[in-house]
Amino acid sequence: MGDCEEEEVGKNGHFLADDYAAESMAADMDPWLIFDGRKTPRAEFEDWLETNRPSRVLRYGDPERSMEAVGWIAVYGPNFCPDAGFVTELQEDWERLQASGRHVTFDTIKELALNHKVVSGKWLMHLDTGFKVDHAWRGIATLVVDGRIGVAKVSPCMPNSDRKHVICVYNEDFTVEEQVMDVDAAIRSAGIKCSISYKPDVYTYLGIYRNNRWRLCPTIYESKYDLECIPRRSRIINKISNSEVS
Questions:
Q1: Which of 63, 147, 174, 179 has the fewest CB atoms lying closer than 10 Å?
Q2: Which fold has domain 2-220?
């Protein structure tokens, strides 16, 4: 529960969540490597995947080889239809809410998200660079091009850093629990057994990261693969109610 209860402040005097938000925004603004299954033939996917392995793509590029910085590596499914909702209006209402001094809870954020139709979310997994991330990304990306998931992305490599890669696997509506669970099941079907957590996109747009000033846990579900259960399955905890999802 440390991420939910502690507030840490970095050397610059800001909450660490502010630093995470700034890093995320910078990655979003840099060029992405994208395989678009709506336009590109499926036959080209394997070559693209091999050329753009996360462990080989550098976050800040390689000047010696005239390679630019890369924010994300992403795959869009054949039926992917992006709809971010009304993000600007969401953020404006968020600023007004903070100025009002009203106490912020998960229900407060959920209400804002529904009002502005910003209801997408993603399962997150953090993996070491090398074989682990490349293997997991191959499984996830294949689910996307086969139409079982709409979209996914993975962060590139950061050499000389202890940062892990993050893979984000999206669904359309974080308020529909069955939909969120279906995406978890798809991820597990790709052989992913590590712990994963779920974050609504509204949290990202509002800068709600680990160690945030509102003391909100930055994820709302946690999934652990139960190797002892027969049949094997995920054990998923709703972190808002602190109860297991049946």
A1: 63
A2: RNA Cap, Translation Initiation Factor Eif4e (3.30.760)
Whole-number Å distance between alpha carbons of 167 and 148: 16
SS3 assignment, position 18:
helix
Using CA atoms, how far apart are residues 236 and 25, in angstroms rounded to an integer?
29
Q: What is the pLDDT of residues 180-197, one digit of tens each?
A: 999 999 999 999 999 999
Residue 98, SS3 per DSSP? helix
Q: For the chain, what are the domain ranges?
A: 2-220
Tokens describing residue 114: 């529904």
pTM: 0.89
Write the CA distances from 197 to 8, 83, 236, integer angstroms.
21, 22, 9
Strand-strand pairing, 72-76 and 32-36: parallel
- Residue identified by tokens 């991820």 is 187
End-to-end Cα distance, the chain = 22
Q: What is the pLDDT of residues 76-131, one digit of tens each?
A: 999 999 888 999 999 999 999 999 999 999 999 999 999 999 999 999 999 999 99
